[in-house]
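Usage example:
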Amino acid sequence: MTTKEAWDEGGEEPRAPEAKGWKALYLKEDWWAIWLGLGLMIVAVILFSGGSTVLKSLAINPGGLKWQTFGQLMGHFQANAGTYLAQFICWLVLFGVSARIMGIKLSEFIPSFIVLYVLSMVMFGIAGWANAAKFNLEAPLVALVIGLIIANVVPLPKWLDAGFRVEYFIKLGIVLLGATFPITLVLTAGPVAIAQATIISLVTCLVIFFVGTRVFGLDKRLCAVLGVGGAVCGVSASMAIAASVNAKKEHLYTSVTLVVVWALVMILFLPFVARAMGLNAGVAGSWIGTSEFADAAGFAAASTYGKMVGNEDVAIKAFTLMKVIGRDLWIGIWSFVFALIATVMWEKAETGRKPEAMEIWWRFPKFVIGFFVASILMTIITSSYSAADFNSQVRPNLILPLVSLRTWAFIFCFLSIGLTTRFRELKGVTAKTFTAFTLGVIVNVILGYFLSVHVFGAYWSALK
Amino acid sequence: MTPACARCRSFVADAAALERAVPGLNILSSAYGSVRAHTGLCERHGTFVTARQRCAEFDAGDASGRAHPGT
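Running the assembly step on the lines above writes:
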């Protein structure tokens, strides 16, 4: 059924497309991230149960090689050329088919993804150098910085962006992360994360909104877009709010600029400050989760810090609990609240718009469902193994290959952030707008630190 | 009462078109994601609207195929 038909069937009052939107199941990247992530997990479990090591082989990456000479690295690639080719074909088919169904041109996606895959191998190669840690050559940072340099120095054609799907890759990575994330941890630490996220979300949004409107006299719609962007989930949240309050295109463009600039600063700033403070990996992961705006940028920062302190797993777990489970869930709630405010208090003309509680579901980041399903399934599947069997069989043959696939998805994402960030394309912002948003950022970082270290520090530092 | 924005020729809901309309939108976000839901861009007013909204300047034009809620 086309949209037009759906509208016609509903008569004069149009039905919400998402309420009947089964098409979303194959047209939205959130759902594709779920299908691919759960599909890979199920294949992994089946192969593991049958004693096959195919997935273990396919999940190869040179990140843990610890090579000393360039010849060793080249030797690794030569010896495993066939495996890398097979892996590349698998990724290309999975991403290519799903991208095509979502409406992305294959003629643009395929060459773009080839570039991305080759660059990812280079990133893994650099991170796999025995001395990489001494020079802070953590894979996420290297991928981000090299991507930024390429995007801003080399005149890449814009159509290459077709394969640099930052959000798609991070969503797949998060669903795969769910497969290695015990649901018991979500249940025990989740409430703390949600409590902390609630405080952060409310305070940051209100600071940006009231400083912007009351102190600087900025447009309230712009401030709503910026406030939620800074408080919840960056540009994605801003886009959701933009429709709720009928913000102008320039408002979202302004949010893109401020979120991207501050998110990049945070990726480079938070891991090094956290290390200088000697923060525990769980505490730092939580702090990054409260302070970074976007999932992709936050995972880059949390992963970098985890690698710095040799405890990436815990840093990523804390970040995920705080950001994905705690803060991202606020997108729909803020959309509904601002739609209510806009229609009741701001608008004089009839727009036919009615705030609906279903907005909370329509704008729910669906990939989070995939994370929970993967976590529950894998917890059930692995619960029948003893601790000894888990460590000797399940971990090396099932869990670690899934971790490696997740690492690939993350590297695709981190590189894509750099490769799509062209500073010349960002919008100039006024001093008032910049100051209002920046004050929110400062409050967010300080409050996030206080909550992560002093209020809930015991929980985060006990995370394993 | 005018028809909903989803049927207006000024309503842009195509994900690729939205990402072209707002440079940098794809850096840390995506028009292909669930959170966008039924948001589109009104080219006439330069504002973001939901597919269910209405306005007095509705333009039927050749609107068929313009609205595409799934993308």
